[in-house]
Amino acid sequence: MKILVIGSGGREHAIIRRLAADRPAPELHAAPGNPGIGRLATCHDVAVGDLEAQVELARTLDPDLVVIGPEAPLVAGAADQLREAGFTVFGPAAAAARLEGSKSWAKEIMAAAGVPTAASVTVTAIDQLEAGFDRTNPLGDLPYVVKADGLAAGKGVVVTRDRSEATAHGRSVLDAGGTVVLEEYLEGPEVSLFCLSDGTDVVALAPAQDFKRALDGDEGPNTGGMGAYSPLPWAPEGLADEVVRTVARPTIDELASRGIPFVGVLYCGLALTPLGVRVVEFNARFGDPETQVVLERLASPLAPLLLSAARGELAGADPLQWREDAAVTVVVASAGYPAAARTGDVISGIEVAERAGAHVIHAGTALGEDGRLVSAGGRVLTVVGTGADLTAAREVALAGAEAIELEGAYHRTDIARDAAEAQGPAA
Ligand code: AMP
Ligand code: GLY
Q1: Which atom of ligand 2 is nearest to the CA of 283?
Q2: Which residue's CA lies nearest to atom 3 of ligand 2?
């Protein structure tokens, strides 16, 4: 089987790594890929935003399946264009990817589908902001949740107890011509659940937890994600089934009833609140860095699964098998991330990390003029450790992250720590 994966980040590297482990191994191509992906797939110099060139490349390669990794091309209609050109695509059409592209539209769909989520107010003018805060946080005793409506690479959300900071963020989004969504604050641990859909049926992968804040102890600004782990030993039994029943299926059904089939990953970002599961956000693609740990634990082959979703045949897919092992990933981020990431610095230590048992996923790397590996984004590498339990997996991932040498880079040291401590030593 020949597969083309569109994207250049850690998520796409993790997808390709897992596809490369299928037997028989598929022939893998990436557009544009990255230096890590280049070891497993043929990389083609086509930008993530160049939809026409992607179609042209697909015409040249004639893949059996195209997998679109990032949200931006999905929202821009990459899946539509590739399907129109006759290809089998894993990834939602623009009309369905709008679930991620517009938080206010996602709220409308959830309301129509009866999906539990934070109460919200959509604000389009500055003079509506303060009333919106009073409605979503009436006692002012909880953090304010202020979101830019459109795509913001995980950085458009401010959660703060400081009302003036909340106001400033809302104003800056409105001043830039955007729309703001204010939400009720959801209390409770977060879970990311990837629900694969073929437009009708839904198959959930294993739940993971992501760490969104830049610094240890959940301090610092929101980022695209600084680390993740799976499984979640503390999660209630049957969580994935409950989310499929109460969140994913009703959402997919609501879209289908509007003539919008969702084919791809419905990423359910959830809070397990004292009142039950609530949706924090939907994304229309695999999460990054959660994919690095979820796919690491998937024992079933990935290519047939994605292909059956793309073809509308998920109902006939084999039940998924999972490894017992735990997986933890720690993101190595550039100095200045997320506000202003420094790039162009030489990276070394990957072999040291891998000799210590970790594997290193490339997220924002490039080859410099002299052929050396350099940083090319905010999240540079995601170092993955596996082990019999979270403690073991965490040790490998952290040792790996510490082995990476990159001027000014930083990583969190508390990824999966609380869950590992609660889990206790391996039996
Ligand atoms: P989003 O991009 O919507 O997932 O928001 C990024 C992060 O902000 C989430 O992962 C949460 O940590 C936090 N967040 C978003 N919405 C809420 C909410 N309603 N209540 C509490 N935290 C939230
Ligand atoms: N890790 C969060 C995301 O992929 O949106």
Answers
A1: 5
A2: 287
